């Protein structure tokens, strides 16, 4: 019975429903597109991906940062011009679509991808409000 419980926990754990996205899959999914993310059902931010692994992240306040991304093992890492420390994420498929989790974050702390489109990001200009 103890083994049956362990099998049930492993089978039904959130990690078992996740499939890591490869760099080539991610590039095909994102290049030339804007990906919109939410956290706990609320808009979190959006990122537009250009050729050459360049990107532009828009925060929820409308300000933007230019950056580049690269892979390290199974992680997708981002460096932005604003001097923010490199941020690495696991990007994965779920039963509901795609999601991302920051390196070292708890399993239930994820950003869900809720929209992909080809429209460029609109960013707040310095000193202006949106």
| Average of pLDDT | 85
Largest sheet data: 8 strands, antiparallel, barrel
Oligomer: single chain
CATH topology: Lipocalin
| Integer count of domains | 1
What structural class is derived from the secondary structure elements? mainly beta
In total, how many beta strands? 9
| Radius of gyration using CA atoms only | 17 Å
Helix percent reads: 10-25%
Count of DSSP-assigned helices: 2
Description of the structure:
The protein has a single domain (23-117), classed as Lipocalin. The chain starts with a helix and ends in a 13-residue tail after the last strand. The protein is mainly beta. Strand 7 (87-94) and strand 8 form a beta hairpin. It is globular and about 40 Å long. The chain has helices spanning 2-12, 23-30; strands at 19-20, 34-39, 42-50, 54-59, 64-72, 75-80, 87-94, 97-102, 111-117. Residues 1-16 have low confidence and may be disordered. An 8-stranded antiparallel β-barrel has the order 2-3-4-5-6-7-8-9.
């Amino acid at each position: 019975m103890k083994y049956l419980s362990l099998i049930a926990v492993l089978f039904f754990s959130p990690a078992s429903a996740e499939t890591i996205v490869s760099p080539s899959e991610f590039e095909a999914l994102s290049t030339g597109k804007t990906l919109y993310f939410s956290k706990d059902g609320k808009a979190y931010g959006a990122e537009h991906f250009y050729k050459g692994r360049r990107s532009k992240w828009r925060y929820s306040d409308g300000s933007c940062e230019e950056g580049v991304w690269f892979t390290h093992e199974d992680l997708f890492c981002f460096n932005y011009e604003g001097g923010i420390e490199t941020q690495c994420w696991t990007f994965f498929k779920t039963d509901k679509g795609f999601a991302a989790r920051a390196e070292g974050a708890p399993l239930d702390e994820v950003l869900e991808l809720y929209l992909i489109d080809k429209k460029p990001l609109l960013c707040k200009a310095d000193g202006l409000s949106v």
